[in-house]
Amino acid sequence: MDVDVYSDKSDTSNNPDALVGELEDPAVVVKIGTTAAKIAFYNFEWRYVTLVMYNTMLHIGVESFLQVYNQSVALKLGKFVPRHRVHVPQFVIFGQDIVEVSENVNWLIQNRYDNTGMFIVICSSANYNKCSEIEIFQTFSRLYMPNVIFLKASEDGDEPMLLTYYPVLPGECRNNKPSLIELSNCDRDMCFKNMFPEKYGNLHKCSFIVSTLEQPPFMHLTSGVNGSLHPSGADGDIIKLISEILNATLVVTTPEIREWGHYKDNNWTGSLADVFNKRAHASSCSAPLTPQIHGNFQISFNYASIDIVWAAKLPALKPSFEKLLYPLKMQTRIALCAMFFGIIFMNAFMNTKLWADIRRTLNIGPTNISLFFYSWLVFFGMPLLRFPSKSTMRMIVISWIWFCYIIRTAYQAALVGSMKLTLYEDYLQSFNMVIKKKYPYGGLVSLSDYYSEDEEVFSNWAIINFNESYTILDELLNGTSDFVIALDKEFIVNHIMRYNGTKRLQIIPGKIVNSPAVLYFKKFAPLRTPVSRIISSIVEGGIFFFSFFFCMFVIMIVDMIYSNHLERGDFLFHHEVMKGAEPLKMSHVKSTFLILVIGWAVSILYFFIEVLSKKIVRKEPRILK
User: Fold this and answer.
1) Fewer C-beta within 10 Å: the chain N or C terminus?
2) Which of 378, 43, 50 shows the shortest CA–CA distance to 196?
3) Is it the case that residue 125 has pLDDT exceeding 50?
4) How many CA atoms does the CB half-sphere of 38 hold within 13 Å?
């Protein structure tokens, strides 16, 4: 057996009688210690260390307990807090009378030991009146210690007496009356097994108070009679199911400050404050788990996940003339430009002496036409006045006509859709671009904990309340704010869907965090264990996932149908989705008309230059030779 001894006692008396105290019959104390050891052996988890607390150097009950319980223990002599503490879920407490026992129990809980652990509390006085169970069980109830077995000498002083209590009984939601444990059928110590049953598995219609707030699409609150709130949605369904399994009366409350909650002025705000200050048993606020929250609260079994992302307004619109080039990807643009530059080069080459030599060698007739000019005529689909007589040249021209027809037809077909598109400048590809462009950013104060190690981001974080997020999202959808907000992605999608695809914003690629969706409890809350067990069964049985994934499935379908609700920086450039059957308007084709007007202006200018040149030629005097 591994034993660690911790002591703050400086008085080591050599008088065993003084250390034992007023034990009139030490034999019963030995029986109590042996019984406690058997209870611990068959009910405690051997992987954990058991804390044994007592106040006297020589204690018969402790000695008999250690002789039977041969697992790892930590002996704690007196009241002191060790420098290095580990989580201890099982305790054995010895005391000479009920006052000493009560003081030890109160001291443990005040020093943040686990009140929901398994406790074996022993009053080792043989005097029945010094171990009143009424007083100690009032202490157990006040400290929310459900898993307690109290051992004392029986009234006749011959045998140990075992008592426990049930915190919730039918018609009594805060019971503190002890109940006697009868030890029967002790063949092979069978009576010592399963002595710590679940005490909060049935609340007998007592209240189960949950603090939450409206968080579409997973939590919707509707008002009922007498001002009561009825939850719905995936999170609402799970707390209703938990309440039914616990046989409890569900009471839903909302915090005074409608937000998840954060630590402020030595207290908590929002929904977490209701739990921290014992106004609610649990919080279903879908708050992302941060180190500070995890250090001050306990969580249930996780049943889903939450994606926290950055949302910003759409970037500025691109000039409308760029729509003319949008149907052509960059490779196609480069190929077409190279082809036409090649035609210009060939046209210039045909005016060189080298081409004249090649033409004489190949017996090609003179070319008095402009290759560049006729190539453009063919490309724009205009008729040719002249056609090559040689079959070789004719095939080249026909191939060029066919190629231009394919390119022109495909381009015109794609251009109709391109004219309807709304093209934007470069999207924000990461949060680093937000910092680089010096956009204001922020969110709920609890989310800033994820950037606590980044001093620049943490110091410039703008704190907003949860209710302000609706206004900020509307400003982003209207394009009137440069603010970049951190929020739950599903909440953003649900808010945008109200506008039926008429307004959009962009989600910056990458998540701030993917946090588990859990219920939050106060540290060492008795209801945490049964609630976690229920959630685990629900998740493993697929009951919750039917509700949760149905909600997610609806969001995915709507997001596919109205995929223009959101814009993602890694999506838009090559997969722009149409908004629906929208007719062509002047705004869609104004760039085309602009090009047409420019062409007319160039043609008129060219016409006047040509007329002026002919007049100048006619006025020049002829020189007779």
Assistant:
1) C
2) 43
3) yes
4) 16
Q: Which amino acid is at 467?
A: N
Q: Which residues contact 601 (CB under 8 A, 6 or more apart)?
A: none
Q: In the structure encoding, which two tokens stand for residue 127, read together? A: 């005097």
> What average pLDDT does the segment 189-204 reach?
92
Burial 550-585 (b: 16+ CB within 10 A, else e): ebbeebeeeeeebbbbbbbbebbeeebeeeeeeeee
In contact, 61 and 124? CB cutoff 8 Å: yes
DSSP E strands: which ranges in 30-147? 50-54, 73-77, 90-95, 118-123
- Select the highest-mean-pLDDT range: 19-23, 50-54, 369-373, 404-408: 50-54
Q: Which tokens go with 286?
A: 């879908």
Name the DSSP class of 563: G
Nearest to 152 by CA among 44, 36, 69: 36
Token digits of residue 151: 């051992």
What is the token pair recorded at 553?
Answer: 């499935």
pLDDT of residue 499: 85
Residue among 508, 476, 504 nearest 564 (CA): 504
DSSP state of 386: -
CATH number of 207-303, picked from 3.40.50.2300, 3.40.190.10, 3.90.920.10, 3.40.50.10790 = 3.40.190.10
Domain boundaries, the chain: 3-192, 207-303, 327-420
159-172 per-position pLDDT tens digit: 889 999 999 999 99
pTM across the whole model: 0.73
Query: Is the Cβ–Cβ distance between 181 and 132 less than 8 Å?
Result: no
